[in-house]
Design goal:
With 186 residues, the chain is of the alpha/beta class. The protein has one domain: Collagenase (Catalytic Domain) (3-Layer(aba) Sandwich). The chain is built from six helices and six strands; from the N terminus they run ββαββαββαααα. The chain has helices spanning 31-47, 79-85, 109-119, 123-139, 157-165, 172-184; strands at 2-6, 19-25, 52-58, 72-77, 93-94, 104-108. The protein has a six-stranded mixed beta sheet with strand order 1-3-2-4-6-5. It is globular, with a radius of gyration of 15 Å. The protein starts with a strand and ends with a helix.
C-alpha cells in the first residue's frame, strides 16, 4: 500500500488487484490530520487484506473539478460546500448513487472535525474512518448500513470508543464482497 499526501496530484499505475482511492481535499485539511487520515484509511483496508493505492490531492476552489481514473474518488469539502450537498448536520459523508454503485463519495471535513472535538478523539483518525466508511459504500453498492462496526450508520459514543481502540473495520462478509467487486472490475 502506498499513500501520498501532496499539494499536486501524484499518479502511478495501480496494481491490477488493488483499489485505487483518489481523495480530493477541497477543505485543505492540515497536513498532520490528513496524513493520519490516510494512515487510518489504509489501516482499515489492510486489516481486511484489501490492497489499496491512495492519493490525496490538496485542491483549492479554483482547481478544476476533474474525475480521475480511480476505483473511488472521494471529495473532501469544507463547511460551506458541505452544507449545500447535505443540509442535515449529522451527515459526515454521502455517496450519490450508493444504492446502485456510484464511484464518487463526499466527506464533510468541518463536521468530522466538530465530532472529533466533541468526543475528544484525534481528528485525522476520525477523518480516515469516515473516508473508509464512505469508500465502503461505493464498494458495497446497494447494501444498507450495518448494525455494528465500520459500516454502521450513526457515529455515536460507542463507535468513537471503537475508533479509539482500533475496532472499527469491515466485517469478513463485507471484505469478501469488496474482493468480488475488485475482481469484477479487473
Amino acid at each position: 500500500m502506498s499513500s501520498t499526501v501532496s499539494s499536486a496530484p501524484v499518479r502511478a499505475a495501480a496494481a491490477p488487484d488493488s483499489i485505487t482511492i483518489d481523495v480530493r481535499d477541497y477543505a485543505l485539511v492540515a497536513r498532520v490530520p490528513m496524513t493520519a487520515a490516510a494512515r487510518r484509511l489504509e489501516e482499515i483496508f489492510q486489516t481486511g487484506r484489501l490492497p489499496v493505492r491512495l492519493t490525496v490531492d490538496r485542491q483549492d476552489s479554483s482547481s478544476p473539478q476533474r474525475l480521475a481514473v480511480a476505483s473511488v474518488t472521494v471529495i473532501v469539502y469544507p463547511r460551506l460546500r458541505g452544507e449545500s450537498i447535505a443540509s442535515e448536520p449529522n451527515v459526515l459523508g454521502w455517496v450519490p448513487g450508493g444504492t446502485t454503485g456510484g464511484r464518487i463519495a463526499y466527506v464533510f471535513a468541518s463536521r468530522i472535525e466538530d465530532e472529533a472535538r466533541r468526543h475528544g478523539v484525534d481528528y485525522g483518525r476520525l477523518l480516515g474512518t469516515v473516508l473508509a466508511h464512505e469508500v465502503g459504500h461505493v464498494l458495497l453498492p446497494g447494501r444498507p448500513h450495518a448494525s455494528a462496526g465500520l459500516m454502521r450508520a450513526v457515529c455515536d459514543a460507542k463507535q468513537i470508543r471503537q475508533l479509539i481502540v482500533g475496532g472499527l473495520e469491515f466485517t469478513a462478509e463485507e471484505t469478501a464482497v469488496i474482493r468480488k467487486v475488485m475482481l469484477a472490475s479487473h
